[in-house]
Amino acid sequence: MITADFHTHTAFSSDSEAEPGQMIERAIRLGLKTLCITDHYDHLFPEQYGLPFTFDPEEYFARLGECREKYCGQITLLCGVELGLRDEPDILPQCAAFYRALAERYPFDFVIGSTHVLSHTDPYYPEYWDKRPCSEGLKDYFSAVETAVQSYDCFQVYGHLDYLVRYLPGENKNYCLPDFADRIDRILKLLIERGAGIELNTAGWRYGLPFAHPRAEILLRYRELGGEILTVGSDAHAPEQLAGDFDRAAKLLRSLGFRYYTVFRERRPEFLPL
Question: Is 166 exposed, middle or buried (0-12, 13-18, 19+ CB in 10 A)?
Fold first, then answer.
């Protein structure tokens, strides 16, 4: 049974309108024991979209601190962040230094590293796909993830591996995994070597995909390579999305041979039985 949601967003993220209290109260009603709020911080997010995807860390910790006191005894509330890691050579050094300083200055319990932008473009928007076929976009995505894993040391897990398939044009989202297997293997091995993990992000099912993120084959390969750190998150941006498909997630993980999932407090992992 999974009782901790470790990937959630509130109105501190540019793509959510949910107040922290709404998310917390919903989590309590669902019977969750732990909720980690991980709002977006995407340094140098492309200006053309008019969305900052940043927040004031002082205000963030103050608000979540108030919530922690208010709901004390009802749920364990943890403060996290999802960092948008960039691989473009012209900004990578600046982003790496910025995120390292951010993680050192503030006491986040948990840090997710994710890839949201490719070639200074958000692939959520159709304009990205106007310029390249799906196979090229996926190749660029996994290449960006590999570069980020090599270049950043400020996160505990890499978020929603293969999430780019949500935005592939057309109806066929079941991409050809063998085309990217070698690069994915390198990503997983690098993560394991540096003591980081991955997450099972259930939002893939919410988006109508036949799999969560990443696909079951990647989760299995991660375990085969010796990977043990695995958090579970709904990627909820609204209260009704919290803990989405967690029963399904637990069943999937057990079928792949996992017996534990991971939670973090003060960036230290703890392993809980499924």
Answer: middle
Residue 263, pLDDT > 90, answer yes
Q: How far is CA 36 from the centre of its chain?
A: 12
Q: Nearest Cα to 78, choosing from 157, 14, 4, 159?
A: 4
- Please identify which residue in the block is written with the tokens 């901790």: 4
> What are the Cα distances from residue 57, in Å, to 15, 70, 150, 268?
17, 20, 26, 21
pTM: 0.97
259 burial via Cβ count (<10 Å: 0-12, 13-18, 19+) = exposed
Q: Give residue-wise pLDDT tens across range 7-32.
A: 999 999 999 999 999 999 999 999 99
How many other C-beta atoms lie within 10 A of the C-beta of residue 240?
10
